[in-house]
Amino acid sequence: RAMVKKGRVSVNGEVLKDFSKKIDPSLDISIDGKSVVYEELSYYLLNKPAGVLSAAMDKKAVTVVDLIDDENKRSDLFPMGRLDKDTEGTLVITNDGELSHALLSPKKHIGKIYSVLVSGIVKDEELLKIKSGFKIDDDIVSLPANVRILKTYPYSDVSWCLIELFEGKFHEVKKIFAAIGHEVVHLRRYSFAGISGTGLKTGEFRRLSDEEIGYLKSLNDEKASSKNASIENVSSVKTSSENASSEKLSNEKGSAEKENNIKIGAKAFSDLNIEDLGKSFYDTISYDDLLKGIKAVIFDFDGTLADSMWMWPSIDEDYLKKFGIECPETLHTELEGKSPIECAKYFQEKFNINESEEAMMDAWNDMAAYNYEHKVFLKPGIESFLKKLKENGIKIGIGSSNFKELVVSALKNNGVLEYIDSIHVSSEVAAGKPAPDIYKLTAEDLGVKPRECLVFEDIVQGLLAGKRAGMKTVAVFDECSSEKQELNKEMCDYYIFDATSIIY
Question: Which of 300, 315, 347, 292 has the alpha carbon at shortest distance from 461?
Fold first, then answer.
């Protein structure tokens, strides 16, 4: 309809003016001078962003079908299955109701691989339940699934796991990990039926290839097997889902057969690594896209708003020298996200220092004061970004783990204190990052709802805090946390090198 109104559609060389007019598909139809052919069935692969509803239409929320552009959109499109609103990743959009119904049938057991970040350090023995299938809720028993730990981050208290399910129960991934004592903090579907959205940036879509469409249709053939599925040329299709789907795991069949099917799919599943799962981001991002639906931006301070992380390792080292203690190499990582009072308690317990928490904090504050007043500067592009936010009526807050007086001192020195509407620090709340307390407090002070906030962070604990507060997150590169960029990228909604990546 929009293209007809703009005069972009022609039929037999004449511009179509009436969008309600029925057109014979055999006629010569063109858009912007390029011939198009009527397509009865359409198939797209979308990299769904978090915050978008898995539905064909909704009066209030943005849906996955809304992300299909005008040239490809049609009124009968719908998502093949669903992903939770806060879940990202691979989702097929189609108008093929018959195929969708068949592949989503509980009898098919189509493989779906998810990248999962959970709180706590997952142990191998905890995964045995998932691999065997177990009761995850009062009335729900999960089928056996492929699962393994990709990497653990002890100091961040986060585990990165990979899981392949062969069913589609409501909130199943979240319930499975909750049943073994771990909260899912970020969830992204890597592939559906072996077809992956790798290479698509968040919110992008592409047409499925003829080979991929043929492969999906082959899964609807009860007699189809992995040997005759025509997918040799589809590099994104993984054998794990292909085999598991074609073998048809079934609740009615014996546990030995289920176990055999899981083993068949294990090789390709186990070959996947963090590099294969890497998310794609644009080098730049539009200001309007970034701030869509946002009423407040909340910044972490050190490493995000200001280039200041460089000084803290030397402060820790100098402080410990007073007691004849050598500073451990991992100390700075262990302290990430902690409030000053939490750091002081940590020093007392770890190093057995007989000094009060107040005395420790006063010493650290004094050691850092001169640098924050004279040597801490804003990161590139920040001042322009703050001005733009202020001009557009976006509220600006800071939620920091630092001392408030140091933050204020640096903001004054850089001439941007006037832009900030609210400053809160972790010592004002019950728990520091990764608890969401500091960001919830700042949002409350700004008078906005968490879902209307965008958090800028440079460390894992901060991104976790933002996620747990129900806010969208932007990961900002900082040299001091560069070894965790892979995890930051997986967890965040957006990733930028610095604020100069934001285009106005």
Answer: 300
Give the domain 281-504 fold: Rossmann fold (3.40.50)
Give the residue numbers marked as catalytic. Answer: 84
Give span(s): CATH 3.10.290.10, the chain: 1-38
Q: How many CB atoms lie within 10 A of CB 349?
A: 9
pLDDT at position 29 is 82
Produce one character per residue of 225-247: b if its CB has 16 or more CB atoms within 10 Å, e if not: ebeebebeebebbbbbbbbbbbb
Residue 439: CA atoms inside 13 Å, Cβ hemisphere, count? 33
Q: In this predicted model, what pLDDT tens digit does every residue of 296-320 receive, in sequence order?
A: 999 999 999 999 999 998 999 999 9
Confidence (pLDDT) at 222: 54
Count of alpha carbons within 13 angstroms of residue 25, beta-carbon side? 4
pLDDT of residue 25: 72
Residue 439 to residue 60: CA distance in whole angstroms: 26
pTM: 0.76
Superfamily of domain 1-38: RNA-binding S4 domain (3.10.290.10)
pLDDT digits (tens, 9 = 90+) for 165-187: 999 888 999 999 999 999 999 99
Report, as ranges of residue numbers, the positions in the chain whose pLDDT lies below 50.
223-267
Please check whether residue 152 is in contact with residue 122, taking contact to mean a CB–CB distance below 8 angstroms.
yes
- Assign 180 to helix, strand or coil: coil
- Read off φ and ψ for residue 307, nearest 5 degrees: -90, 90
- Specify whether the CB–CB gap between 140 and 98 falls below 8 A: no
